[in-house]
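Form 12-C: Joint structure prediction
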Amino acid sequence: MTEPILQVDGLRKEFGELIAVDDVTVRVREGGSLAIVGESGSGKTTVAKMIVGLEVPTAGSIRACGSDRSTPARSTAERRRRGREVQIVFQDPYTSLDPRQTVERALDEVLRLHQGWDAPRRRSRVLELGELVGLDARQIRALPRALSGGQRQRVAIARALAAEPRVLILDESVAALDVSIQAQVLNLLADIRDETGISYVLISHDLAVVRQLTEETIVMWRGRVVERGPTAQVLDDPQDDYTKRLRASVPRPGWKPTRRALAGVGEEMDP
Amino acid sequence: MSTAAPPVEAVAAVERRSWLALLRATGAAGVASAVAIAIAAFVAAFGPLLAPDSPYLGQLSSSYVGPTGGHLLGFDGQGRDLLSRLLGGARTSLVGPLTVVVICILAGTVLAVSAAWKRGTYDAFVSSGLDVLFAFPGILLAILAAAVFGAGLVAASLALAVAYTPYVARVLRGAALRERSQQYVAALEVQGASAFSICLRHLIPNMLPLIVAQATILFGYAMVDLAAISFLGLGVQPPNPDWGVMIAENQSGVVQGYPLAALAAGICIVIVVVAFNILGERLYDQAQAERR
Amino acid sequence: MSEGPASAALLEVEDLVVDLPVEGEMRRVLHEVSLSIRAGEAVGLVGESGSGKSMTARAIDRLLPPGAAVGGAIRFDGGNVTALSGAQLRRFRGEVAMIFQDPRAHINPVRRIGDYMTEALRTNRDVPNAEAEDRAVDLLESVGIEDGGRRLRQYPHELSGGLLQRVMIATALLTQPRLLLADEPTTAVDVTTQAEVMAILDDLRREFRLAMLFITHNLELAAAVCDRTAVMYAGQVVEVRASSLLHDDPLHPYTAALAAARPDISATKDRLASIPGRPLSAFEAPSDACAFAPRCTHVRDACRQQRPPLIELDRGLTRCLRADELRGHMGPETA
Amino acid sequence: MLVATLVVSSFVIFSALYLAPGNPIAVLSGGRTLPAESIKVLEARYHLNDPFITQYWLWLKGVAHGDFGISIALRENVSTLIASRIGTTAALVLYASLLILVIGIGLGLAAGLRRGFLDTSVLAVTAVSAAIPSFVAAIVLILLFSVKLTLFPSLGDGQGLFGTIYHLTLPAVALAISSLAIVARVTRASVREEFGREHVQTAVSRGIPYRQLVRRHVLRNAAIPITTISGITVASLIAIAAVVERAFGLNGLGAYLVSAANSKDFAVVQGISLVLVTAFVVVNVLVDVLYAILDPRVSLGSRAQ
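Section 2 - Result
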């Protein structure tokens, strides 16, 4: 068996007294797609931040594309190499782009960072990337404020892909989009996977989106993994109490919301 | 059909706002203020060349003599041509505040951006250091500086710059923290861009409208404070012309019933400060509006 | 589920038109919105961003920003809402309670929870403070907050978002209103909390025989908890349908497309039937054509030549010229 | 924080002695040539032969007991000199603060609550008066009220309560005018901003009457930023008072500080600076306390951003 493209073992993160992530283990095979499901406070976003190096793990190890990234990068070259291994697309289309930078310049900046190409070559790659995510030449020259939320999210995807990463982390990347736009972006992500063979890690609270995009699922609750397995199995036949409750909370035709014992699992109770 | 651009998505042709467009957006009062500032700057640069007479030499016999043919504004208490002194005084009255603003904006920006970037203990250290510095009112620090280093524009300007820096840094730190938390910054970090280049090429340019607004507002404050210090005799030293010095020199005229000499210098200060205040306020509103 | 006679409606909105001043010019935000709610009935109002669903609620409660131009009619219990002022308007607002999406911004941060909850009772109903607090504690208990007495003495920043949303719901019910306008009350909370909040709303609504206008972007949620659902697009209501029929037998292509575009939790779709383009705001949409025409896969020339009226069809309402012929052919299965 | 700030500022004020060009004796004597025994006295007084930190500590101990040293120019105890002048400055600052708080906040509230003529004129007048430096205001006031109308004196401190108020009126107005305008503008803006808050809309949607809405939700919340700006401006008066005292020939601390700085009377400069900084810091701390009372989200010690 070949080594997984992303391998996370015993990951832990403490913020002072709070244990945000506790003993999380993740495997993603090349070309595979994994969902990390959970609600606020589950630690799923902290896991994503540690994988891309925005947070330093308290304990545990992270390996991507065969090299270790458990500790902060020492050199510029190392930092950029990691950038070519794993990329991320965030949730908020409105702050994910520099408002002063055109799409073109944003993509060009990333290309310059990673490839030793001359200007014409970078320019043609920018157009190629635009085409890949469905942006025309006019949109490529535009500033973010001229673009809709869906278009901005396409730009964020293109920027991540510009580094030609092997793993793309989607941190609630379609959560802020309108339903009709969300469908477009989900289809786009499926097409990109077919074309490039990239692996996805989807961080999401939306089980329908998880079903649509991933093969494997991990369910997190209060920093710990409570259930894992093939996505269809986890959603159709959840074993853990919390997963069951999460599944039952999704509105559907004929759904009847019920009140549970309030101090029960998952219920936030503050002082 | 797979990844083609959806048909009805249109792109509004929104260009990046030029500084000229920004100025126009500040309205009639903003533009008028900018014009007033431009005139003041021109006078500061070329004032001595424009002056009809010497700002230094005069005859005591003309003391507090009103406007006559060759002397549009008459004479000051020492019989010097008032217009020439006003024109000559523009330079020190504007260069002083400019020095203050440049220093405290530079220092404030560096402190604010580095604190916002590093966060944690470094930020706490910088912030509490600034809080302590906040305990020195600008004028008091300038008087102290004059007592230690001797009276003069340089000591006064440096003292004011030090006193203003915590204020600038505090305002800009808030803006830098907001910018730092934008997701595009995290995206660039993940790409492997260096902190220095992200700050220089993204953070600071995005804070620029606010920085310029701050600088403009501070210019007005610095001008008032420096003129006050010169008025106290601890800034620009007579016989050099300076609007603050001129008010002190000609205060006796007010009581003697000839207020023009002191008033003229006062009016010059008020006009320039009003212009900086209004323009700064409008630019600030624009900077805030752009954030939304 | 038939449309009753007009007199039976508690709230009736007819051809509501709203223009707002934006940068010096008037911009249309609502385009002939018509809607009715009977006493005790829950109606969902669904739409994507910019469709005008929140603006509709604001117009009903007379909360539009200054300078807004309002046309059409809003009637509550037979009375003309748009003509109300002063004490009458305040009394009307006591009968219509509003729940907002972001409780943290909508509750005064410098006053205690108890003050927030009882202010309207003390001020408008002259209920003594102690009695008002007792009632508040009772209602907190019915929204699942047991230690109400302690909560009343806390400040908003000491409570979590989910708890604050419950406080807001309890507060809305304190003055015993007859209509609840709930503007995306669960959008900012977690899925499990959403289920909890919806259950509470549902229970209390039935207990108090309260009518509700439930605003959301989530079609499945609205359909699951409301008797009828109205779908908005570009500042107009394009369909009103019994919730039970909405999913399988929609009357407007937009509703059908919206349902088809959502991924399915119980099955992986090969490809989502996405709607091309982006949702339009009222002022961007064509005014002399069907607003959905530019994105509609069933569009004909006629759709571009006039704005379709809201017509009745199978006890529902639709703004589609081809509704009758397309019926059964625009559902998710055929998309 | 209060203690830390005071320690650091006293340290800065003390070490200014060493920052100055020339040896401490030259600084303390202001360049005057002193007889050998006077130098001995100075050395003993400032413990100049001890290590720097010891010198500072002994100086600070002296200050804590009210011993600020001896004025080289007047050959008198600095504390006596300060005591005889502090009253004038305190009265001037208090008088001006009162004007700022009453008129500034009053104008700001009126303009914030009523759109129209009053609002526009307050905006226009305050835009100009915010830019009038105290010494320019001083000459205009002297010209109008002493020279032309002869209603108020242009010089001197005055005797007794009424005399003091009478003599301090023009100086207080000159000192207050620009701060008053700034406070009025910020007050107006805060009221407007609070009116636009979502929670105010909630109160409207619940049928709360307008007057109560304004009082309990708009003004109550606007009090927080108004407190901040009032605190900053009132504190800043402490230093600007020097300028006004000079312009009106008042015998206050600030004017004395300036003449001491001019004549290089170093002990006096140190003493007065320390008094003024302390007053400045104390006002800021009072504002922080008030802030914590007004805003339940702020706990004492965490300065509002």
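Section 3 - Comments
Chain D touches chain C through 23 residues (CB under 8 Å). The mean pLDDT of chain D is 87.
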